[in-house]
## 1
Amino acid sequence: MTATGTATGPTGIRLTAPAPGWSITADVVVVGSGVAGLTAALRCAAAGRRTVVVTKARLDDGSTRWAQGGIAAALGDGDTPEQHLADTLVAGAGLCDEEAVRALVTEGPDAVHRLIAAGARFDTAHGSDEIALTREGGHHRNRIAHAGGDATGAEISRALVAAVRSAGLRTIENALVLDLLTDAEGRTAGVTLHVMGEGQHDGVGAVHAPAVVLATGGMGQVFSATTNPAVSTGDGVALALRAGAEVSDLEFVQFHPTVLYLGPEAEGQQPLISEAVRGEGAHLVDADGTRFMVGQHELAELAPRDIVAKAILRRSLEQGVEHMYLDARHFGAEMWERRFPTILAACRAHGIDPVTEPIPVAPAAHYASGGVRTDLSGRTTVPGLYACGEVACTGVHGANRLASNSLLEGLVFAERIAADIAADGPAVPASAPVETRASLPLLQPEAHVAVQRIMTAGAGVLRSAASLARAAEDLDRLHQEAVEAASDPTPASVKAPEPGVEAWEATNLLCVARVLVAAARQREETRGCHWREDHPDRDDASWRRHFRITLGADRTLSVHTTQTAGFPPTVGPAPQPAPLPDTEPTP
């Protein structure tokens, strides 16, 4: 790769893990098998690059297949990329990078048609070959293409997995990526990974490659209740931080307003009630049947997600209850069965029949608007390391993702990454990796539950200086316990955990949790999906800017701000704004 980055050498840290016992080589390694990862892999392979796909579970087991609502693009009559741009900028609450959004909305329609050409089958209007389009929150036009009623992600995943298998791409399934390999100049040289029993190799190994594409999805498992699958433990963001890459906007975690409420003790992945249900006319009501969104926003139930989530929480607090209701009884059985069969089945599996009763709903962690900072070609601040999809912060989402922009972002920016890699000429063999980085002490596997509960209590939908301070203190305590266990071998000390999947995942969760809390403490305003009770107003004068956060070899965080809502370049000399007065200790 020819791009030069801001990194000057291997200054990061790594997880405690055995040395790789096997290795393979490639031109590109793509980590993740959702819409972003598989699109990037197919495009790189088509450009003649030897491409290896590494995925944590099976090829079709990532976050993409859980996407219900659809993919947003200006495909309908009367709709335009400019209108899609306007809706995205409004939802992003002043922090979208307009150039990135413009790339998304202008390239999006053709990217969707290429997806269709690859085999994806979208629902069509009755008696027509035209794609059926619906609306979701924050959109002023019908521009959401869906498949199988409410199984869009599953159909996209099916089509892309079939294309990958047809193309004969090399894949390593059931593999947890551990760390980035770098050479003496700090350039990407591949990844280390651990194959969990059923892959092509057992144990820790390495894929040596001069280009690595992170497409690892989100980090929803940092909270107790989330719509994300169990594999979403922030592995890509944590890897990038340890490698010295910049992350941004981690404080902006979108809580989906309508998640099936299963009780106060419910933990792990919760059933999503797609925004498309509201797009088709469902109403949010309280226990008395009152529609509380009317009059709060011009779009009522279809307001941007942060507004709806806050309204649900406010009404719940006012009435001293845990949830509100989504009422779609007027759909009738036929519409439920045809348009939302997946959601209908999920509700009935939990003893709720939406045909005859309202659905109890409450907000739950859904999507990370921030992640590893990239430019418009998906390049991070570490040369040779790319990121796309939910793990990335392209600037598209700002402070709050517009509904159904995520699948489109994965498509568009994966194609941009592949184009950048292809334009770089023949692949240059990666230099020999240099492993001089210090090891990061591991968290006890069972501590992941403590991380989730700390984050839910202190950094959930409602945040304050006091709640975030408590969260930071409790997370610091978990980190310190890990440090002490690793450094004190005496029999009386707490024994350090053995390296393994559960310990690595818990350590990754703690890493991203501490960075999220550090950013949320710094941002003393309410903006998008970051809601500070003690700073209830948006403050453009002070905070219409981003944090750029890196993790040093000494395990301290460096927190800088951008000068504007735009990001500086990721490659070449980059301006270094003065740090904020306070920096946080690192994971």
## 2
Amino acid sequence: MSTPFGDPTAETTESVTPELYDVDLSDMAVDELSQDIAGDAAPEAAPEAATPAYLLVRGSYRSVGTRVLELRVDVDGPRTLRKVSGDFFTSGGSTTSYAGSFVVHAPAVTWTATRVVITGQGRFTGTTSFPVVRVTIARRRVGQQQAPATVQFLRTSGQVGATYTCAFRSPYFRTVQWEQDSVAGKVPFVSYDTGSLPGPPGSPARKLTVPRAYAEAGIDVLVSSAANILGDSAAGWNNAELHAAMQTNFSLWRNIPQWRVWLLVASRYEGNAGVRGIMFDAADTFQRQGCAVFYDIIKGTDPESVRAQLRTYVHELGHAFNLLHSWQKGLATPPAPLGPNNGFGDLSWMNYPQNFNPGNGAPTGTEAYWRAFPFQFTANEITHLRHGFYRDVIMGANAFGRGAADIDPDLFDQPVVDDSGLRLELRGKKHFGFGEPVVVELKLDTTDLRGRDTHEFLHPDYDLVNIAIRQPSGRTLLYRPLMRRCVEADATAHLTVDGAPLYASAYVGYGQDGHYFEQPGTYLLRAAYVASDGSRIVSPVLRTTVRSPYNETDEQVGELMLGEEQGTLLALRGSDAPSLQAGNDALQEVVQHYDKHPLAVYARMVEGLNAERDFKYLTPDKSALKVRPAAPEQAVGLLSPVVEASLHGNGVDNITLNMVMRRLARAHAKEGNPEQANGVLDHLVSYAESKFRPHVVDTVRRQADETRRSISGEPGA
């Protein structure tokens, strides 16, 4: 079936399914066609548009009628990419539906004194018999109105199909509404003068706001007048609360694809002082509509702090546009080319300053980044922002990193040469029950007798570790966490052969693609860690099996654990979000009716962790942020059996047990029982002493002491 937008005989009311647009056309050589179909085409000349007498031929155009084309012309003006792209829509009655997109990456462009003709082979989201695109625009002088664009779709033989007349709309390629809310007492970023601190030679000094940073990329960010001040709490914001806040419909929010995005200026991220921002809306069908920055870590009025604030805001909104971190772009679909040194050398808003490393002995790190960064996106990122297919860019459409789940099974093959001096190990149980949450442990150490320095962000939520999962069917998926945390702290660890390795525990059973381990069978897992110097350290393969249910009870409990909402609750470690109520009901059914089943320990843990903490939520009229206080007695009743079972090897893994015991101690303190709190922490340390090496015991003891200090101020303690 051909797209109706190239074929003039096609029915314009034909229903178009999203699956149709998953097939890309093969590339064809344009040079052979240009002489026949470009009319008065001639060897391309330098555009006279550089002369001030002419208006720029650049920006967005739109047709009218039942078949609508939104066109983007990018052949003139600042940072010209020499591309043309467009999105098709069908309009009928009071509805408009998206129908497909195209892009011409390398058109022939012919300039005359009166017009510009742009001709090239299009890449479409679906099949078409009219793959050649020709755009003709009359040139106008300054003071005149911009001319419309005539767009024709042609067969390779030159036969003309559909033709559109698109009126000029804007010098920008896309327009987005941005609502920014903040919590009480946190002042949002305003602007930064790029001349305040040394920068790259030739980069002009100018005052940059967040909208202007995107304007320089050709994107018009309109600031919404709806700006709310929300309440805050000293505990900070966790994943579940951010998720719940987004689900509670802020002013511009609708659960549909739309050019609207929300940013919350929050106080801090609960439990990790290094998180500067997060694009948290990656858990449902309509993703990338919300992000947050954390004021307490990025605050400051000195030039360095203000500069870093600008980068954090632009960076998090970049994720909402579906831009990945610089070193991750090869995992997108289609894969984007990586910049210097596997992306770590990118001078981009989407790189981490502390990770900047162009390789070949060039200066690295934060200072080198800022001395070279021109406050711009890279050319590939601008291509995505201006010309990416509609559903890949617009908020609320394709998931973050669209297509990154379907990867080459050999993506994590061992490097041919590995002189990194680092060693990565992925550990996990050999067997999991049907419906049991799959948790893996990552360990990073060194084989270099001189020791090695590297970053300590080992958890996959930080995007510096990826985990590939080959399912029993043979399909290989990339684990994609619901929440991605952006850190800019220069957290460097010095690893020695005899010293403490780095450890992390990660629940990988559920992510953006749903449940990864819902079918019985054998699974192969492999992790890849990207080190500070750009080296990619690959773990040996971990083989694990999900057992078939032994009996009807196993099957019933497994089904209760495998719902989508239950997976989200496990990833968030509990939530009060109304949208997850069915998931909470299922976990409560496991606790109440299957309390002796081995999987009940996980349901208790999620419910207990959520009860131990306060939970922030919006009132039904969205006028205020309320705090549901912790329920320590309930938390103690739920977490105590989790600890008891785990200490005897029938519960959660040791890293998770460490966290649960410290949260149980906090619950006892909130109850007003400091003796029980200290007893739990003492038991934690003694358990570690009986199980682990001295350097691990030292870490556990330090964490227990930190918890003692923090709970000394708990009510009742």
## 3
Amino acid sequence: MTEPAAEPMGTVHNLDEHRATRTTAPAVSLAKDTTAPDPAPVDAAPPSSSSSRARRAVRRAHALATHDRTRSTVGFVVRHGGYFVGGAGVVAKRTWEGRTVAVHHRMRAMALASGDHLAAAEWQDRADRFRRERHERRIELVHKVPTMAKSAAIGTAAVEGVLLLVGICMAISNRELHDVVAPTLAAIDAVQALCWFIGIAWGPALGLALVACLSHLWRAGHKNETAPAWARPTSDTVDDVPITPSIVVKALSDLGVPALKKAIKEMADGAAGMLGPIRLAGCGIEVDVTLPSGVSTEEILGKRRKLAENLNRHEHELHMTIPPAPRTVRMWVADSGALDQPIGPSPLVIDEDLTADMRKGRAPWGQDLRGDAALISLWQRHMLITGLSNQGKTASLRALALWLAFDTRVEFHLADLKGVGDWQMFYGLATVLIQGPTDEHVMEATHMVEGGVEEMMRRIDLMRELTAKGWSQDKIMADPRFNPLVLIVDEAQVAYGSGAVETFVSDSGAVRKGAPYGGSKADSRYFQAVKKVHDQGRAVNVTIWEGTQDPTNENLPKRSREGNHIRASLVLGTESQARMAVGDSAVDAGAAPHKLRQGLDKGTLVVAGDGVKLAPGQPSVTVRTHFIDIDPAKEIAERAKARRAGVETQTAAEPAEDLDHLANVLDALGDGKRVQTQEVLRRLISKHPKAYGSWELHDLTRVLREAGTEPKATRADNGKTGVVCVSRARVEAAIEGREEAAERDAG
């Protein structure tokens, strides 16, 4: 019998020992090393084996924890768990605000912060009314509990009585005494069956209710992004890069301005001294940049697009203005994509109890870029809104008029020269409503504005009388005879571009042309009426709002656009149009309606003027207006009509009352043979202030020219030579010729 082969002396019996030592030993010798100590027993592990196992366990745990699948799983669990937990908080907050006055207090604080103390008092009144009504409901519920219990007992007894009556009838019919309780027993069986069904369905119904509740919480949390930022899905786009001081400095350095780049390199603090604090401002950040010597603000404003791209933003997401500090540019940088998100519905839509006060209140128009409410004062302010077609001009103008309709003291005269029904809801709100784009509609709109001029002159005369009697300005403004009159002309470019001309029949029977109704020149009746309202209407609460497209010198004369207190512009095509729309000073300070995106920035306005709250030193503000569609606008108009006593709307403005101008001129001449034209006009205004108070020399010249008695330069009665005079003989001859022509026509 052969003995087993002898085991080599270098054989390792312990596998762990072998793994632990093979990395350190250079080689395993198969020959016996006589100098080496005897091998350790098989059951005795080396001292380093436990620590090596611990290290391996740690490495495996680290690999497992850092694996992509583990990270995605943990992120998924935390993200959706955050949605559930955060959604519960959101729902709890909504429930709390719905049952308390927390919203009222927040809105009151916002009103106080914006300086609108009237709105703050109104929100406080609403809070007090809410508390009072809630207390009354609770007291009423407490009082109803005994009544409900009593009603339940009476109802149960009545049902049982009916059942017994039915049972008695059945017992008499069947001659069976136990039929008396048969209906009652049947009712008890029905109740038991209902309880059995409820017991069976209770579990599934409770499960479905729990699922619906969790689903609601998850949706609320997902909508409000309540999960931790690290657990939310990340985006691979560069637009998510936050704005830091180093990024701002780098963007300025790479702007291509040599003096700026050199100054940044030479600054010991890394150009940190150029930057003010980076402040959160609405859906973005705001920072002031103090430019070094040799760099002008115009150089920076002119490179807006390149600077935006250096900041990893689109051009429309960077807005630059010039604050009061010298050599400083204020930059507002939006969060990526934030300006493409809607701002929410108008308060006119969601607040059915909303009121308006033109004198003391401010209209809720939208939000500025900081996310604050954009409130605009309309008291005694003329307004112009312009922009390219189909960018939200009519909706922006109509939103202000809808708010103002809740002030029952305001009277509207409205001309919509587009005529597609955008203002139809004002039928029953406006005293005059003209709708249409033809020359006839332009003539009616001109009569409407001229009627506003006549009302303005009547009020000016009345103000003189009341002032002479010692009335204060506040008392005069509170008088109903000075209630605000707002003239609105939408698509005013139709009037400025119209060729409608006044025609009349002369004494000889010939048809002659007079002054044009439309047009942008000085002889345009519409232009002259608008100019007169701009000049004097504000003082007596007669104001005019115009909406127009694509401003040019032809469809929006300089004298007309510069007579407005509030000038707002939607997107425009060129910088020259922007200067026409909001003014040179606003554009020089950073206002850029021509930088808005056509089609994407609908309803976004650059507003200049004194009607909107502006930051110190800023001539303009960018406002994202609330959009009110046709159907909600109709509902709002119906609510406004319910507050008014009823308005009879004229669909065309009545032309001004016909006057015998020649007879009045003859009366103004008195005994003079030749009277200077200026003196004749002064006498006309003195004798007939309502009719001629708004006239100027060209108005008188036009009337006399049409009658064939145009003033000429000659010697006046006072001896002056070379002055333009009105001849008494020519006026008398014109009147006689007119009478003879009338007699011939009658014969």
## 4
Amino acid sequence: MSRQSSSRQRSETDKGTTEEGLTEGPSPEGPPERTPDVPAQGRDDAGERDTAPAQAADTDSSAGTDTGAVADTGAGAGHDQSPEPSGEAEEVEEAEDPEETTVTGPLAGTVPDAVPVPKGWRAKYPVVARTVAWTVTGLSLALVFTALLLPTKLTLVEPSAFMRIPVEGIFGATLLLMLPTVARRVVAVLAGVALGALTILNLLDIGFNEFLGRGFNVVLDWILLDDAESYLKDSLGETAATVAVIGVVVLAVAVLALMALAVLRVSNVMARNTAVATRTTLVLGTVWVMCAALGVQVAGAPFASRSTTALVQDRAERVRKTLKDEREFAKVAAVDTYGDTPGDQLLTGLRGKDMMITFIESYGRSAIEDPAIAPGVDKTLKNATKRLSKAGFASKSGWLTSATYGGSSWLGHSTFLTGLWIDNQNRYRTVTAGDHMSITRAFQRTGAWRTVGIMPGVTKGWPEGKFYGLDHVYDSRDLGYKGPKFSWSTMPDQYALKAFQRLEHGKKHDKPLMSEIILTSSHQPWAPIPKTIPWSQVGDGSVYKDIQKAGKKPADVFTDPTKVKTEYGKSIQYSVNSLIDYVLKYGNKNTVLVFLGDHQPLARVSGDNASRDVPVAIVAHDKAVLDRISHWGWDDGLMPGAKAPVWKMSSFRDRFLDAYGPNPGGGTAPAAPSAKR
């Protein structure tokens, strides 16, 4: 066979060369068939492969021709062919490289049969596969952008909040485009986990801002999650609380995992489309710089966002301040103006009086001034003032700014009693671990009072009772209650007061009583609410079973913005009426009552821009008791007016000890030896 003929045959057979070393010949009678390469015969010393003549393919091109017949034909033709130049052999080998295969001629534009064909649903439904791929990529992008732009307050979570360009996303995309494959994937996963953790913290911020009016403190607030679980058990039941806790844990894990997968997905798509991703990142970066320079805003927020960076910086700063505050507050708590004042110089103006210091849960300024709540509460306060006056009692009231909001009542209690601003758990632990004097301890130090605590909200050991100087503490286990719980509240306020009368106040003592009483019926979720009943029917509390069953369900009230305000107002009315009814029934000429709210209710009730003010009042039968605070400027009656003085809650202790000390109005402390404590 001539060299020209052999070359022409090779050219034709090369058209069917595949990555598997097989050749396909164009058959006029059917689709190309795959034929194995046949070793060259005769003088092919280099072991180079030869192809069968085109005529061999023609003779066996019927549909029934098998590869064995083709192989035989090729083998016979090999005896007539001349040795092929090495250059042509190299071209054949290059064509066999799966990365360099080029199909021309009649098969151009088709996929050679030798190339592995995708199997599964993607091959069967290519349109669906492409749609799913685009959807997953879109959702991944949306998840990343949502995490980068998520606000920390529920009221700010609206569409306009996500219509911005996050600079962190631009920097992240730039970094991923610059990294090699392995490093890119590692960085993408780590960045996704970090972004997921930031998202969890942002969600905690939303919850804390909604309930406590402040963001989540990553150093101090983890312990409050246990309190949240207890609250859910008391409000919704143990099963529902368990399901909720499991759901929260699953959600947290899902956020971390999904965010990591989302960032990895986006990075892989960018790597496959480097040119488009680079151009897009460059354009977004340019737009961000221009908008930042021009101060472009969307719905009052910068279009060129750097909110994630600001949040991270804010969290880091809060951690730094928290750690610094711990050291500084310890020094402040160690200094006490009244720390070394002798007992005989304390509270001389109240000697012989039965003192009641009472906190009403969530009794805030909104209860008196919010148009949706105030009518019922104001009417109750006015009627109570009249009833007290008729019985010979007088009262004065003002405002105190609480150290807490929406919850963490113990922070308000400790701030009021110690004269220190205790607005976080770390400060609370610091002060209760020391010996800073509280108002209740001042009564104990005099030796002139028996000091007791009525704590229906305490369900286990409470070592702080010793710090507060209480001779005896009655918690929920000691008050003898046999009735049902009212959501979080372990017992109705009226029962707690009746138990106080039975256990302490109604007994004969050689000393007057100083009692700290915590009333809990106005605790959220404000359903069901007890009803006032005749004192003689209170008994062991079993009578409240039917009242509890007839009350509203927490879920129906707490989730309704109108009902929750209404029921909150009713709960405050119940607590105030229970307290005033007790004073009128069991009080006497020596009774002195100081009562106040511990904090405002959560924002759902008090509003997003509510103050932290709470009402405070002093009630006494002896006119001389109120004369000592005449210079305070408080309003007459139980309901302070809008212009009544507003003090920080931490300032009350020193004012109180000064007013009822041996030199009222003469300064913050009497002349006494001073020592560092």
